[in-house]
Amino acid sequence: MSSVENQAHSHPMSLTNLEDCFGRLYRVFGAYEGEQLIGFAIVQQIVDELTLLDICIKPQSQGKGLGLHLLNHIISDSKQHEAVIVMLEVRQSNQAAIGLYQKLGFVESGRRTGYYPAESGREDAILMDYRL
């Protein structure tokens, strides 16, 4: 997972942070090509609120619908676990992800100004929600 994370994100989560996502409040979903992990998503559910903490696909495997597949699986799984909302945050510069989230019905619910480190300074986090 760490390898995929480092390839897919400009500011990846640390190995320690990834390891911490295997507790009882978390669920981790993988996307595979044969036996090779090429993408994953991590969610955390507290009571009926689910937060998408991370989703990434190896760059060479992007654009093939794997992100959409993972998100649809997360939404289906969320319903089975009686969540009422799926929440996430995304870098304002990540227009491909924002477009995918909007396509599925996520709506912007807020912003965190200067939340993420960027190549030159900081950039906003866009908060998005999907009501189940």
TrEMBL record:
Q: Keywords on this record? A: Acyltransferase, Cytoplasm, Ribonucleoprotein, Ribosomal protein, Transferase
Top-level taxon of the source organism: Bacteria
N-acetyltransferase domain residues:
1-132
According to UniProt, the reaction catalysed is:
N-terminal L-alanyl-[ribosomal protein bS18] + acetyl-CoA = N-terminal N(alpha)-acetyl-L-alanyl-[ribosomal protein bS18] + CoA + H(+)
Q: Where does acetyl-CoA bind?
A: N94
**InterPro entries tied to this protein:** AcTrfase_RimI/Ard1, Acyl_CoA_acyltransferase, GNAT_dom, RimI, YpeA/RimI_acetyltransf
Active site residues according to the UniProt entry: E89 (proton acceptor), Y101 (proton donor)
Would you tell me the protein name for this molecule?
[Ribosomal protein bS18]-alanine N-acetyltransferase
Organism for this UniProt entry: Shewanella electrodiphila
Q: Gene behind this chain?
A: rimI
